[in-house]
Design goal:
It is a single chain. The chain is about 35% helix and about 20% strand. It has about 230 residues and is of the alpha/beta class. The chain has a domain at about 15-95 and about 110-140 and about 205-225: PvuII Endonuclease, Chain A (3-Layer(aba) Sandwich), CATH 3.40.210. Strands 3-5-6-9 form a 4-stranded mixed sheet. A 3-stranded antiparallel sheet has the order 4-8-7, with no helix packed on it. A hairpin with a 4-residue loop joins strand 7 (about 200) and strand 8. Helix 4 (about 145-155) packs antiparallel against helix 5 (about 160-170) and helix 5 (about 160-170) packs across helix 6 (about 180-190). The radius of gyration is 20 Å and the shape is elongated.
Length: about 230
Amino acid sequence: MGFLNRIPSWDEKSLNVALLQEEAAVFAKRESRHREPTLFGVTNGKAVGTYFEHKFQEYLANKYDYEIGSSAKGIDFPELEVDMKVTSIRQPQSSCPFKSARQKIFGLGYSLLVFVYDKADDSETRTGRLNIEHVVFVRKHRTADFQTSTGIRKIIENHGNEDDLIAFMRERFLPVDDIVAHDIAQEVLANPPEIGYLTISNALQWRLQYRRVISEAGVVDGVDRIR
């Protein structure tokens, strides 16, 4: 029976964010030593990420009772409001569903568990190995775009008004019409956003880049270094 359809046993613990972080560190250490034949020669980042995500979910499902995410739910751990991202150290980035321009200002609306790997192939054993160099947990209040959120904070600190904020959104090419820009500006004035540490590029899907969260992990509150 696949882990997505398994029935949890009576003695399994419920998964929470603290346990998820602990297990991510344990799994990353274990996986970094594992040599996997099916990964040999694989260069497709999506294929590598799918392999790792499924294996981590299976690892957790054997120990905990929790709701497993799906494409319909949008994130991997919906009960915990956490999504998992697996990316190469050579270009640490991934895609993310676009919901609204507000995500660049106020955050994605959920936390991110980011695994950053360096893949190495062994031609003698014909296996691939994922050395997990970083595991970072970005809490949801830190998932806004860095340049957008810091720019807005500066406008607020300089006593900027609604017109200043709307002009800034236009300069940043945020995908908003006049009505939405007006509503966001009023919300920002009433509740200035926290500074986020992602780089979020405009696209049909957000493009998330992680170099800043890797460098700031363990330094900034809300950007936790797990490994």
